[in-house]
Amino acid sequence: MKFSPLALENACLVTLPKEMIMAQTPTLRAAISRQIETGSTKLVMDLHQVEYIDSSGLSILVSAHKLTQKHSGEVILLSPSAGVRALIELTRLHHVFTIFEDREAAIEHICSQ
């Protein structure tokens, strides 16, 4: 996982790993929570590399959403693969998250808030 600061002071691009599974959940959740708590309250979660995500991986996204909401922030999703998008839609999370396919549009959206 990689955190890349964006033009807006409290915005960050989070590049997620190939797999978001139960074994990685505590580590990923802690790293994202730390990032939010240190001031990055507007996150672009880049899912383009994610090949597999299970329910615990989805829970990381939901936890990040809830934590950023406490700080008047936002989490948006970027470029989920077809399989990941299908799971997001199956779990109705596409009603919770804004999803972008275009990286520049996602960054522009998060930095204009």
TrEMBL record:
<dbReference type="InterPro" id="IPR036513">
    <property type="entry name" value="STAS_dom_sf"/>
</dbReference>
<dbReference type="Pfam" id="PF01740">
    <property type="entry name" value="STAS"/>
</dbReference>
<feature type="domain" description="STAS">
    <location>
        <begin position="1"/>
        <end position="110"/>
    </location>
</feature>
<dbReference type="InterPro" id="IPR002645">
    <property type="entry name" value="STAS_dom"/>
</dbReference>
<comment type="similarity">
    <text>Belongs to the anti-sigma-factor antagonist family.</text>
</comment>
<dbReference type="InterPro" id="IPR003658">
    <property type="entry name" value="Anti-sigma_ant"/>
</dbReference>
<protein>
    <recommendedName>
        <fullName>Anti-sigma factor antagonist</fullName>
    </recommendedName>
</protein>
<dbReference type="GO" id="GO:0043856">
    <property type="term" value="F:anti-sigma factor antagonist activity"/>
</dbReference>
